[in-house]
Q: What sequence folds into this?
């Protein structure tokens, strides 16, 4: 009884806070100074059509490096914890029923298309919405579909680790190249900016986003693979 | 915001609330996982309406896609039968 009362009171307080926030909300009539700077100078300075990407990869590139590091740590810890329970025997029962004909045949058709969609999303990150994180998650969902269609499928952990490490190192190396030949760490302008709105434009942004996409995809895929390889307790 | 998109966001918000409540009230774990995924799906359409396609893609791919299947994976491992 008291527990319910406390929960109800907490909810009421939360509702009051949110109500006071939303009732007094007036949308800004104009962009604020930071947003105005980005809106006016992104195309001119960095040659990126998608302003969000320009902010994520270049203006706030260091934050993105931090995000990628957090994701890397997470996937490393998941792999470390689950590796102690890794199943050794091949062809044992997983407890997951075998996939049906529809799923197996359908996944053979869909996996290449999903991979293509993921690559499209991160290669075009500087032109259209989306980018490395979204594209990487789409790549990982292709790996997930393969695991669902064949729960005993084994991914090469070596390959995943090599892709992930190489793209991480290359990401930092590109950042250092920007420090050496352009304005600062992760500056994209050491490569030519190209024609605005074409695929090969915006300097190093497509390269960086491709590396992020590969890295994020490899991290999620390694997490899924570790999960699928654990013993049923 | 036009009338149509206001109406759509109201419907989406109601759908999110219903799905969120369902996911904590129901006794069936698979249903709870599915409705938690539906919250993310509605949220990603909401982000689309609010002109944030980048966030919408992340939410749809990670929130409603990978997370839902991750929960099912773990549910298959621990073999939970609900807490009824």
A:
């Amino acid at each position: 009884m008291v527990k319910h009362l406390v929960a109800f009171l907490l909810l009421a307080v939360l509702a009051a806070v949110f109500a006071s926030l939303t009732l007094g909300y007036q949308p800004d009539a104009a962009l604020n100074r930071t947003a105005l700077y980005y809106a006016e100078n992104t195309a001119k300075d960095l040659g990126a059509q998608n302003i969000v990407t320009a902010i994520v990869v270049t203006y706030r590139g260091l934050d993105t490096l931090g995000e990628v590091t957090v994701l890397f740590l997470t996937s490393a810890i998941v792999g470390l914890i689950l590796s102690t329970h890794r199943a050794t025997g091949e062809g044992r029962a997983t407890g997951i029923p075998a996939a049906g004909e529809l799923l197996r045949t359908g996944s053979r058709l869909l996996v290449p298309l999903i991979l293509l969609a993921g690559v499209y999303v991160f290669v075009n990150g500087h032109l259209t919405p989306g980018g490395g994180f979204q594209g990487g998650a789409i790549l990982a969902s292709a790996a997930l579909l393969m695991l669902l269609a064949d729960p005993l499928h084994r991914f090469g952990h070596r390959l995943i680790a090599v892709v992930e490490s190489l793209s991480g190192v290359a990401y930092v190396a590109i950042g250092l190249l920007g420090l050496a030949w352009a304005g600062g760490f992760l500056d994209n302008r050491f490569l030519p900016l190209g024609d605005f709105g074409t695929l090969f434009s915006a300097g190093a942004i497509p390269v960086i986003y491709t590396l992020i996409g590969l890295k994020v995809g490899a991290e999620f895929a390694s997490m899924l693979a570790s999960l699928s390889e654990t013993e049923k307790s | 915001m036009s009338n149509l998109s206001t109406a759509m966001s109201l419907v989406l918000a109601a759908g999110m609330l219903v799905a969120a409540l369902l996911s904590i009230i129901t006794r069936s774990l698979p249903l709870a996982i599915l409705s938690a995924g539906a919250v993310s799906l509605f949220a990603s359409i909401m982000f689309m309406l609010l002109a944030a396609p980048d966030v919408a893609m992340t939410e749809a791919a990670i929130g409603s896609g990978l997370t839902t299947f991750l929960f099912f994976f773990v549910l298959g491992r621990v073999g939970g039968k609900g807490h009824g």
